[in-house]
Amino acid sequence: MRNPVAALSLALLFVAASPASADRNRVPEQDALRAGVQSGEYLPYSEMRARAQGRVEGRMIGSEFDPGTGRYRFKFQRGGSVIWMDMDGRTGRELGRVGQ
Questions:
Q1: Within 10 A of 53 (CB to CB), how many other CB atoms are there?
Q2: Is the pLDDT score of 8 beyond 70?
């Protein structure tokens, strides 16, 4: 850009917009999980994922955390079937599954 004021204005506009867009992309469930892991209330996602993968044959295709119940839900694909498995985020215990 030939105009240094315009270049500076454009740079400041970009920097000012960045935190706002970061806040829009925040996921409350992730914040609740992060706080719960830091306080020791919940087991870390990586540990729970490893436990889930050790219990279900198939490829993990998704996961989510419910801060209201403290449950992780893992989704697996095996052949043409989908399996959902719920686990207690506090104890790591399997709570149930749907699918075969």
A1: 14
A2: no
Look-up of token digits 């801060």: 67
> The CATH number of the domain where 41 resides is what?
3.10.450.40
Give the residue from 35, 99, 25, 39 showing the smallest Cα distance to 65. Answer: 35
- The whole-angstrom separation of Cα 94 and Cα 73 is 10
Q: The domain containing residue 67 runs over which residues?
A: 4-98
What is d(CA 62, CA 68) in angstroms, rounded to the nearest whole number? Answer: 19
In whole angstroms, how far apart are CA 5 and each of 11, 15, 38?
10, 15, 45
pLDDT digit string, tens, across residues 24-64: 666 777 888 888 899 999 999 999 999 999 999 999 999 99
- Location of structure tokens 């970009």: 14
Number of domain units in the chain: 1
